Amino acid sequence: MNLKVIEKRKIFLSLAAFLVGLSIFSIVFFGLKPGIDLTGGTNWQLSFSEKIGEEKLISHLYAIRSRYDFSVSSLNDGSFLIHLPPLSENEHQALREELSKRINGLQEKSFSSIGSTIGSEIRKRAVWAILLVLLGISLYVAWAFRKVSRPVKSFKYGVITLVTLFHDVVIPTGVLAFLGHLKGVEIDTNFIVALLTIMGFSVHDTIVVFDRIRENLLVYGGKNFSLKEVIDKSVNQTFMRSVSTSLSLFLVLLAIMFFGPSSLFYFALIILVGTFFGTYSSIFVASPLLYLWQKKSS
Amino acid sequence: MFFKKNQTTFLILVIIVAIIAAVFDYQPLWQKISSFRPWTLGLDLAGGSYLIYDIDLSQTAPSDRSLVVNGLRDVIEKRVNFFGVSEPRVYTETAGEHSRLIVELAGIKDISEAIKQIGATPLLDFREVEEEGTSTPKFILTNLTGRYIKSARLAFDSVTRAPQVELEFNDEGAKIFEELTLKNVGKPLAIFLDNQLIEMPVVKEKISGGKAQITGKFSLEAARQLVERFNAGALPAPINLINQQTIDATLGENALSKAIIAGLFGTLAIIIFMLSAYRRLGLFASLALLIYISLVLGIFKVVPVTMSLAGIAGFILSIGMAVDANILIFARTNEERKKGLSWQAAIEEGFRRAWPSIRDSNISTLITTAILYNLTSGFVRGFALTLFIGVIVSMFSAIVVTYGFLKTFMLKSKI
Known about the structure:
By secondary structure, chain A is an alpha+beta fold. Chain A has nine helices and four strands; from the N terminus they run H-H-E-H-E-E-H-E-H-H-H-H-H.
């Protein structure tokens, strides 16, 4: 294996920049659709023994509620997911009664109703979690690269690690915004957890590559090797490991997506996308950036 | 280090523990061992209801709040215990200025009735009355509420035979009642139940001993129910259902079996991958992985960690991550071999060089999961917990198990 990451850096960096741009566009253009746990609302999963289409169910619901404050989607297992504003238990029972009068064999699979106050609280906590994870990871990165190393200054490793982190988080978010538009996928707590998990993975991948660059710089640096060669060598040495690690993670994520319960599908998909681009960035983005920065300053 | 000196002994010990753990994890294998502690399934898998109530503490003095919240939890716990649900959980949480009461009912059949029962509030309080001419009287809240009730009894009026409720306050309540009656001699004192005026008897004299009667106009049935509720405890503060999640048991069962299948296929795929990529080394990694799985599940079961769907997802993810440490060691070992080192030296060197990466790379995930665990609640929390435990055990399995396998077998076979 002999990848020339630095030589082809323009291609790799442009691709990364393009994907980040595309993702930001997708987020701005499609917007992120918040789930009920962030805004308050009701998710109600129902099935009927009577064969009934989505439209029929919508017309029944409209007849009962006499306004369109709900949405209905059909799930793979033949059940329906109804999305409503927050319902009290009495409203829930009343609606259930009305529906079972109109459609035969109503069976409740799940019902969750979240008040708007608790929604804003969860939102607040999510923001806190994101901030704290960013802070924790930054501190950790600073610690991991604390040893003074020449010729590349420690803080550069840290800053670039955070830049690639941004890349790794924006792309799955963009994918989710697009899926929200396409399939009505919502951003809920699960998604935030997935994002934060990606942050943890992504950083660790980048650190392994950078660790190797630092080690090689100590061994070969200043002798007959240029920075370019040392970086290329390091990337190639860690390449197999990066790919193998991500591959093993892919395998379990694919297993969750295709064999696991449907409620985990998008959760696993988002982590998969994040892991993929996290690996890409640690190989093809982080090292060229380090090279560029170092070249400019020397 | 101990395990370096007694490599083989320690490895054998770990394998034995792992085998015991496997028997313990897999329920049908040997009931005697596995039933020692059953799996704790989350509501999303076992089916059931997860209810969050907001506790209204606006009428409670700040110094009394923690007392009231704890009292409320005890009362709800008593009520919930009547539902015949196995191991109901009732606990409180503070979120900013709000206090929350959380009720988890696994496998409940009639959640609607349960919600009614929990919320049924014989919210009793006494209020002073300030009469202003002929207009409607003004009621002033007092400290005397249902939380001071020691016991209640059904009685009948000696003349009219109408049912009435006799209340007995505890010492503290008796004192407040005494002061209240002393202050209001000759004036009426209002009794409110669930914010409804029940009656307004005139206080004739100071009442000591802490006994009161509510006559009202109860039917026999209503009076009896009231007595039961008072004895189970009146709610010391009003509560308001703000979040409900109910999952049907069959849906949960279905999700559980799918998640297990996903875990099996994921593990199988990794084993195939490791074998084809690293051959003989892969075999050791696969064995180490199986030991890892068995140990982690054992820990989950013993602690016990409640297995929710998110928790299982976290665990399956940790299986994928656990291999990482092995890959790091193997990749380094192969590299050192290429430099011309003997197997013994290559393994030592490979491990020595891989260790800082293994440690460092797991720290970021540990940081993330620790923060997630502290900032989330409900189902998602399980994800952080299982991933956290998984990562720690995977580091252990890399250092002890994989390294032990390599040293014991590779060196003996002298390839």
